[in-house]
Write a structure and sequence with these properties.
alpha/beta; Nucleotidyltransferase, domain 5; 5-stranded mixed beta sheet; 5 strands; about 20% strand; globular
Length: about 190
């Protein structure tokens, strides 16, 4: 049986897009995590969708080679009003997943609302709210120029929190267990 509490994992988070693709790498060990990098790949000046998809594929292959992540956490497709946009996004997601599969990464997809809820507690949170909460979680994090980068980090953090919640829930459950595990968070207002 693996000791999940001390198992290290490197998560590649991706926010796919055909104009801007966000990516982030998160190192985790048990419940702790640290941002390794986050950035974007810009493709808005490329003339065709095929060229953009090629850049997504090659960029992710290079990122995977440089950072050696264990898994990919990616936003799963969502229903939108514009079928053309949905098709383009689906293609970008598929190409990102193909690059991960080529390198043997396990893939985890999360709905956008679930990612936002994991980070902010609210499934309808704005990109600004997600970025602000990530800044609270990682105070040394510099605000990137594009929210696509923080959205990618949010996908990675969402996966980490899912994994951490599993670790905690298999260990103990309930308020008594929480208080025992987090006694440093308890404020004692009883002044004798």
């Amino acid at each position: 049986m693996r000791n999940m509490e001390s198992e290290k994992m490197r998560i590649l988070g991706v926010d796919p897009g055909t104009n801007i693709m966000g990516y982030a790498v998160l190192d985790t060990c048990g419940r702790r995590s640290e941002v390794v990098t986050l950035d974007v790949v810009k493709m808005s000046k490329l003339p065709t969708q095929a060229e953009k998809l090629k850049v997504i594929f090659n960029s992710l292959k290079e990122i995977i080679t440089n950072y050696s992540p264990d898994i990919l956490a990616i936003e799963e497709p969502f229903f939108g009003k514009n079928p053309q946009s949905m098709l383009k996004l689906g293609r970008a997601q598929g190409v990102a997943m193909a690059a991960a599969l080529e390198h043997g990464l396990e893939i985890f997809e999360y709905p956008p609302r679930r990612i936002k809820q994991a980070i902010t507690g609210v499934g309808s949170a704005s990109k600004e709210q997600v970025a602000a909460m990530l800044k609270t979680l990682y105070p040394d994090l510099e605000q990137p120029a594009y929210f696509d980068a923080t959205d990618a980090l949010a996908a990675a953090v969402c996966h980490h929190l899912q994994n951490s919640a599993t670790i905690v829930s298999t260990k103990r459950s309930g308020w008594k267990a929480f208080i025992t595990q987090h006694s440093d968070r308890i404020i004692n207002n009883n002044k004798n």
